[in-house]
Write a structure and sequence with these properties.
Blueprint: H1 2-28
């Protein structure tokens, strides 16, 4: 159970990082 929670937390963080990278690239195209 603990490993599952840890894995889902890491997965959530990684998906958030992906979203941030996309936003940065999207904004960079307008500069």
């Amino acid at each position: 159970m603990y490993i599952y929670v840890l894995y889902s937390t890491i997965d959530h963080i990684l998906s958030n990082i992906d979203d941030i990278d996309v936003i940065i690239l999207y904004n960079r195209n307008f500069i």
